[in-house]
Amino acid sequence: MSKKRRQFDRAFKLEAVRLVVEEGRSAASVARDLGIAENLLYRWKQQLVDTERVAFIGTGNLTPEQSELRRLQRELADVTEERDILKKAISVFSDRKK
Questions:
Q1: In angstroms, rounded to a whole number, what is the distance separating the alpha carbons of residues 3 and 6?
Q2: DSSP characters for 20-89?
Q3: Is the CB of residue 20 less than 8 Å from the CB of residue 29?
Q4: Of the candidates 11, 1, 97, which has an alpha carbon nearest to the alpha carbon of residue 57?
Q5: CA atoms of 77 and 26, how far apart (whole Å)
Q6: Which CATH number characterizes residue 15's domain?
Q7: Domain membership of residue 90 as a residue range
Q8: How far apart are CA 47 and CA 37, in angstroms?
Q9: pTM
Q10: What φ, ψ does residue 88 adopt, rounded to 5°?
Q11: Does 71 fall in a domain?
């Protein structure tokens, strides 16, 4: 029997980290009170420090950098496809003239 992985929303994570950072409570006591592992709380705190404005964006949500990268990759694929179509058209029309 597999254990279902618990998921925590952004508000829960922010509040847990706030309890440690702003209220000065120990990570161990906050983790114990919330029923989570202490190392998970440390990981959330580090994620918040590393990517403050986009921390805990959730599954399927992209950071602005990831969104831009995905947009540029789509654009590159479109332009490459258009170029290939034009190359084929040129070869077809150049064969007809002969």
A1: 9
A2: HHTS---HHHHHHHHT--HHHHHHHHHHHHHTGGGTT--TT---HHHHHHHHHHHHHHHHHHHHHHHHHH
A3: no
A4: 11
A5: 50
A6: 1.10.10
A7: 62-98
A8: 16
A9: 0.52
A10: -65, -40
A11: yes
Q: What band does 58 get if pLDDT is binned at 50, 70 and 90?
A: low
> What do you get for the CA distance between the two ends of the chain, in Å?
72
Half-sphere exposure (CA, 13 Å, Cβ side) for 26? 3
Give the number of domains in the chain.
Answer: 2
Phi, psi values for residue 84, rounded to 5°: -65, -40
Q: What is the pLDDT of residues 13-53, one digit of tens each?
A: 889 998 998 888 999 999 999 999 999 999 888 888 877 66
Q: Are 48 and 17 in contact (CB under 8 A)?
A: yes
